[in-house]
Amino acid sequence: MKRNFDIITKAITQSRIDALDESNIPFGKLYSDHMFMADFKNGEWQDLCIVPYENISVSPANTTLHYAITVFEGLKAYRNEEGGVNIFRPDANAKRLNISAERMCIPPVPEELFMQALTKLIKLDQAWVPSLPNTALYIRPFIFATDEFIGIRPSENFRFMIITCPVGAYYTKPVNVKIETQYSRAVEGGTGYAKAGGNYGASLYPARQAKAKGFDQLIWTDAKTHQYIEESGTMNVMFVIDGKLLTAPTSGTILKGITRDSVLTLAKSWGLEIVEKPVAVQEIINAAKEGRLQESFGVGTAATIAPIATIGFEEDIYELPPVETRELSMKILKELTDIRSGKVSDTNGWIYKI
Ligand code: COI
Questions:
Q1: Are 218 and 141 contained in the same domain?
Q2: Ligand 1 binding site (Cβ under 6 Å of any ligand atom)
Q3: Of 52, 206, 211, 263, which residue is most buried, by most CB within 10 angstroms?
Q4: Which of residues 169, 194, 214 is at a domain's end?
Q5: Which residue from 218, 301, 336 has its CB within 8 A of the most atoms of ligand 1, so it is best to mutate?
Q6: Ligand 1 midpoint to CA 138 (Å)
Q7: Residue 180 Cα, ligand 1 centroid: separation in angstroms?
Q8: Shared-domain flag, residues 251 and 323
């Protein structure tokens, strides 16, 4: 039976939307007028409210500040053809949030609470959903521990929040990536499959080392042998070799990307051969050397499809074919864009209309 959650709204008196210039939206800098908050206390989520976006205060002994007991999600709302708002696969994000939460000893957020909070918040701030091509409202649900305690043990108190921000393109050009063989993003038995804040914090130092050498991002390899490709930056990664779409299976070290799943679903429906198996670095390098590596791209919520321009491995740089010639990634991006805007029918049930 559907449970209705009582969410109290305290609306802003003056919108900040005049600060939004749709033709120039830097990622993650300008936040919409309202945010959702709920606190987990005495074993249940309570004090559900939507309030003006503002700073929050936490104790200096807050467990999350010290031990990164936090998980997050990323999803997007799009302006549809009729001027309304479509959210892409929010139910999948609600489920994944709880998979991540369990790994960090964070209590689950009921999926109905997630959906009702999201719906109410996006309805209230729908003017913030931009309409220009390549824009969207990025939605960031997150949960963090709020105990005032610096001993190390699972927390008892938590906060669940949703904030949103209009965004443009995440990457403005095809990316140059380096296959990382020294540092690791995740290990078997670790938190790689979870969208845990610490995974992202720990990725910064290796990424900065690569930037200093002129790369935009890393391709992560398995921690044991560094011979198999796992993810690229904050995204899953795919390759097209000899007309087949190749990607690593999701595992304990690889995030179960919702964009990844959407891309594979579309490609399968078009009759494309999909190969989901461990992707050896050497296989990619050989294909690049032999001119058989037709395409490579990152797939994630923020960028959707991020074409890879070059791949650096050891001392060599391998250049991929020009982006304009990459039929599959361009077709996927167009189809996803058209599904999200309602231009083509949503046969997979991915669109949630506000
Ligand atoms: C995504 O693309 O799904 C991300 O998680 C990116 C985010 C860390 C900015």
A1: no
A2: 74, 200, 234-235, 300-303
A3: 263
A4: 169
A5: 301
A6: 10
A7: 19
A8: yes
Comparing CA positions, the residue from 18, 5, 14, 194 lying closest to residue 118 is: 5
With beta carbons less than 8 A apart as the criterion, state whether 50 and 121 touch. Answer: yes
- pTM, two decimal places: 0.96
- At 38, list the tokens: 């709920």
| 135-178 tens-digit pLDDT | 999 999 999 999 999 999 999 999 999 999 999 988 889 999 99
- Number of helices and strands (H, E) in the chain? 8, 19
**220 inside domain:** yes
- 71, 139, 234, 263: which to mutate for ligand 1, most atoms within 8 A of CB? 234
The CA-atom distances, in angstroms, between 205 and each of 189, 218, 330 are: 22, 11, 32
Q: Are residues 203 and 155 in the same domain?
A: no
Ligand 1 nearest atom to the CA of residue 28, by list position: 9
Q: Of 71, 232, 235, 299, which is best to mutate to test ligand 1, by the most ligand atoms within 8 angstroms of its C-beta?
A: 235
Domain tally for the chain?
A: 2
pLDDT classification of 63: cutoffs 50, 70, 90? very high
Residue 3 forms part of a structural domain: no
For residue 257, which atom of ligand 1 is closest to its CA? 3
The domain in which residue 131 lies consists of 8-169
Measured from the Cα of 27, ligand 1's closest atom is: 9
Using the predicted structure, report yes or no on whether residue 119 has a pLDDT greater than 70. Answer: yes
